Amino acid sequence: MGVPSDDVVLIRPSPRAGEPTVITVNCPDKRGLGCDLCRIILEFGLSIDRGDVTYVLTELEHIIHRVKVSTTPDGGVVDLFFITDGRELLHTKQRREDTCERLIEVLGESCQSCDLQLAGPEYEAYQHGFSSLPPAVVDELFSSNLSDDDIYSQEFVPDLLRLKKSTLSADNSLSPAHTLLQVQCLDHKCLLYDILRTLKDCGIKIAYGRFSSKPKRYCEADLFVVQKDGKKIVDPEEQKALFSRLRMEILHPLRFMIADRGPDTELLVANPVELCGKGRPRVFYDVTLALKLLGICIFSAEIGRHSTPEHRWEVYRFLLDDTPGFPLSNGRARKQILDRVRKTLMGW
To answer: Helix, strand, or coil here: 126?
Structure first.
């Protein structure tokens, strides 16, 4: 992270199973530090003994840009992952060997060969941009007026009602220099990241914060904040705008839809990109895991960016193969796919 050598990270394991591990970080402050720390923690995820290719690449800090899957005449499968290295070390022989060895170790006998090489002309499409989204898809996926009936099945109604009961408040009486921002809402995976990302993008700096989980998956956050000019958030209109932005990011941190792409069926998942250009951590892995659990094969996948007046979005596009258990033309099957993907990404 480029921090001085006297900065420390202390990890204190829980003395009892099931209790949280405490991570203490001591480093220079900056705006958005909490968001950046959340990103690092989420990108590492949990240690596992066996996983798939996307997990290993994520674990090794490689960034997946596009995936192509093809079947060979003998029934084998060739997966092409177009990646860049988060550590910027892929030009070294050691880094390439370490990556291949880790993949072979995890995949075991199912991996016949693994090779890393510089992408050729077939990757020029990515270099020149992301496949354009149809206007109808853009209108539905990035709508600011989302219909809960359209995007949530009955299974999610209780959680949705609890999400809508989220409360936000600002108090300027407890500190002479800071505004106390209080958030109470239903918990979901990456909730703290979503809150801190939104504050970072709004130019809000956190001086002190406390985040706690309550029974029935409720969470509370008490954050002492200032604006980028170092002043409190006093203007009622500025408070209202901030609350509106936070509510939207808490209620709909990701967007999901299934659409027809010519004769094929496409799953789309989108998340806001931070102003610094970074996307949400581990989305690709979570989506592929959800589809794997449903037994659905991915024909191809790509990742790109799309801009709207409100956000710059990272968009994941998966072309899906029909399976006997999930005929993709069936509306009920599509709903099941969306529900599973949403549950995996939200941690519900």
So the answer is: helix
DSSP for 196-237, please give it: HHHHHHTT-EEEEEEEEEEGGGEEEEEEEEE-TTS-----HH
Q: CA 103, CA 54: separation in Å to the nearest integer?
A: 10
Q: Coil, strand, or helix at residue 89? A: coil
Strands 22-26 and 298-307: unpaired
Amino acid at 72: T
> Is residue 268 within 8 Å of residue 316, measured between CB atoms?
yes
pTM: 0.71
Query: If we measure between CA atoms, which residue out of 67, 11, 29, 28 comes closest to residue 320?
Result: 67
**Beta carbons within 8 Å of 198's beta carbon, 6+ residues apart:** 245, 246, 249
CA 250 – CA 160 distance, rounded (Å): 11
Kindly report, residue by residue over 120-177, the tens digit of the pLDDT. 765 665 544 456 788 899 998 888 776 555 555 555 566 666 667 789 999 999 999 9
- Residue 230 backbone class (left: φ over 0; alpha: ψ -120 to 50; beta: rest): left
